[in-house]
Design brief:
This protein is mainly alpha-helical and 117 residues long. The protein contains six helices and no strands. The longest helix has 19 residues.
């Protein structure tokens, strides 16, 4: 029923074309590029604001970039949710503390992996 949506891997060419078309549509409709990096900065700033209060807003970067959720934040959230749904549909979902390649090379200790990151 789901066809290609339940595949564990997709053609990188088809995915690249899809992302390219999405990027064109983003520029055409909203005049903004598809991007994630500012959303990560804003999210870390919002978390820091929860811990440190308004002091975070005094940083020059956050005076230029407001600490708000916007469409880019929604895009990042949608990517995470979409990846989860894709893993469930393809029956490829599993909880894993240490990636297979890391385990083969360094062992299966999550603490060592966390320190190395």
């Amino acid at each position: 029923m789901l066809g290609f949506l339940s595949e564990t891997s997709w053609s990188p060419y088809a995915v690249g074309i899809g992302i390219g078309i999405s990027s064109w549509l983003s520029f055409l409709i909203s005049r903004y590029p598809i991007s994630c990096s500012t959303s990560f900065s804003r999210t870390s700033g919002m978390i820091e604001r929860l811990l440190r209060g308004k002091k975070v807003e005094q940083k020059p970067y956050y005076q230029e970039i407001e600490l708000i959720g916007d469409w880019q934040s929604t895009l990042v959230l949608g990517m995470v949710i979409g990846a989860f749904i894709s893993a469930i549909l393809s029956k490829d979902f599993s909880l894993q503390w240490v990636p297979d390649l890391w385990e083969t090379t360094f062992g299966n200790k999550p603490l060592l992996r966390g320190i190395a990151e």
